[in-house]
Write a structure and sequence with these properties.
CATH superfamily of the largest domain: Type I PLP-dependent aspartate aminotransferase-like (Major domain)
CATH architecture of the largest domain: 3-Layer(aba) Sandwich
Bound molecules: pyridoxal-5'-phosphate
Largest sheet: 5 strands, mixed
Distance between the termini: 56 Å
Structural class: alpha/beta
Strand content: 5-15%
CATH class of the largest domain: Alpha Beta
CATH topology of the largest domain: Aspartate Aminotransferase, domain 2
Radius of gyration: 22 Å
Number of helices: 16
Order of helices and strands: HEHHEHEHEHEHEHHEEHHHEHHEEHEHEE
Strand order of the largest sheet: 2-8-7-6-5
Helix content: 25-40%
């Protein structure tokens, strides 16, 4: 007779190198938080116990990747590692051409500058901060065409990242196809809670855009996590391999921008990959101005090598099962004690619903920012606001954009924390939940012009 439930996702690795963590007292954290203006981005990493700020560049590399770092070919031009990466991008993503960049936003910058004319529209399935900013800096206007369910943290739609093709079609009717630079399809959708897009939706998006001669650019940052959800949730894909699903997803798009700091298990790196020869030539030329020569794009040879090896590891089923499994483990534990989170649980993070967690705090007193601050105070856990502060101000009116979703993101670095750490996290959330009625709002005292969530400062009300 078995009494214990079987664990579905044990980590498919053992630990070879350790990095000590530092614990602090509540008094210490109170001071640190005040000095950081109640913005978790402004805390010092040494003052953080468990860092769930982001899964970006915080991955633990494998012994194989570290070994690859020693094989960095640091030639200025034509590095061996560039050709290795090009091979792997062609093999797993299927695009013909590769332009490496220092990280994802480098690729977003290039494609925005090349394809967007001032006055153009750029529809996409919910905005991402850097993506939208590069589109706007190039003179474009972002238009959100994600399905309505994505804005409802309680909707159980299995593919809340889907584009609403009706919304896209009416935009095309309204402004004309020639004023749409391209459509961004993000897989998964970070700002919606790490929600995936279905293969069927991508296929239909391709049919619609092909009819109007509009390009599709995939934000492939977490496309491997998205592929895992397709395998789990979409009829007909249960027995497809991860590489087959990824290739099919990419086949419905013309290009991708990639932050290797997420899916690809590295600490720095990204790329633009695409099929059109003319656009490739322009991108290869422009990258020299902003990033570096087209065979290194702002990266060292060793970084290119680590990313090439990371692709191969990221598509392994045992890796992705444990990666998404760990996030689901935390999410399900929180649900089981009644904590309001975004469902279904996303691929890279659990999102606390601050509107339901702290209903007494008005959105203009930054409930998600408050909750992130309280979690740090409680136990030294660092998380991130994804609500009104991240949404920024309207480009035209200058007013605060009031997003429906007011979330705190608990983001899990890949291969970094153990299950015991996960338990500490859920216990801390529970402790804040127990004293939630006593928590008060914040007031902004400093606000920078761009991507304000990184540097805004607050005071307690
Ligand atoms: C992180 C991220 C980016 C930008 O990539 P960087 O490497 O941080 O520049 C773009 N899109 C999504 C969905 C991301 O999560």
């Amino acid at each position: 007779m078995h009494k214990l439930e079987k664990r579905a996702w044990a980590e498919p690795f053992k630990i070879k190198v350790v990095e000590p963590l530092r614990m602090t007292t509540r008094e210490y954290r109170e001071r640190a938080l005040e000095e950081a203006g109640y913005n978790t981005f402004l805390l010092r990493s040494r003052d953080v116990y468990i860092d769930l700020l982001t899964d970006s560049g915080t991955n633990a590399m494998s012994d194989n990747q570290w070994a690859g770092m020693m094989l960095g070919d640091e030639a200025y031009a034509g590095s061996e590692n560039y050709y290795h990466l090009e091979d792997k991008v062609r093999q797993y993503y299927g695009y013909k051409y590769l332009v490496p960049t220092h990280q994802g936003r480098g690729a977003e910058h290039l494609i925005s500058q090349i394809l967007i004319k001032p006055g153009d529209f750029v529809p996409g399935n919910m905005y991402f901060t850097t993506t939208r900013l590069h589109q706007e800096l190039a003179g474009g206007t972002f238009v959100d065409v994600i399905i309505d369910e994505a804005h409802d943290p309680e909707s159980l739609h299995p593919f809340k990242g889907n584009l609403d093709l009706g919304k896209l079609e009416s935009l095309i009717q309204r402004v004309g196809a020639n004023r749409i630079s391209y459509v961004t399809a993000a897989a998964t959708v970070n700002m919606a809670g790490g929600q995936p897009i279905s293969m069927q939706n991508l296929r239909e998006l391709r049919q619609l855009t092909a009819k109007h001669g509009i390009r599709v650019v995939l934000d492939a940052t977490r496309a491997i996590e998205n592929a895992w959800f397709i395998k789990q949730r979409e009829a007909g894909y249960e027995s497809h391999s991860m590489p087959d699903i990824l290739l099919e997803m990419c086949s419905y798009t013309d290009a991708c921008t990639m932050s290797g700091k997420k899916d690809l298990l590295v600490n720095i790196g990204g790329f633009l990959a695409l099929n059109d020869t003319g656009i490739f030539e322009e991108a290869r030329n422009l990258v020299v101005v902003y990033e570096g020569l087209h065979t290194y794009g702002g990266l060292a040879g060793r970084d290119l090598e680590a990313m090439a090896r990371g692709i191969e590891e990221a598509v392994q089923e045992d890796h992705i099962r444990a990666r998404v499994g760990q996030v689901e483990y935390v999410g399900e534990r929180l649900l089981s004690i009644g904590i309001p989170i975004v469902v279904p649980i996303g691929g890279h993070a659990v999102f606390l619903d601050a509107k339901r967690f702290l209903p007494q705090i008005d959105q203009l007193q930054f409930p998600a920012q408050v909750l992130a601050a309280e979690l740090y105070l409680e136990s030294g856990i660092r998380t991130m606001e994804r609500g009104i502060v991240s949404a920024g101000r309207d480009k035209v009116t200058g007013e605060n954009v009031m997003p429906k979703l007011e979330l705190v993101r608990l983001t899990f670095p890949r291969r970094v924390y153990t299950q015991a750490h996960c338990d500490v996290v859920t216990e801390a959330v529970e402790a804040v939940y127990d004293r939630r009625k006593k928590v008060r709002g914040l007031r902004m005292v400093y606000e920078p012009k761009y991507l304000r969530f990184f540097q805004t400062r607050f005071e307690r009300l």
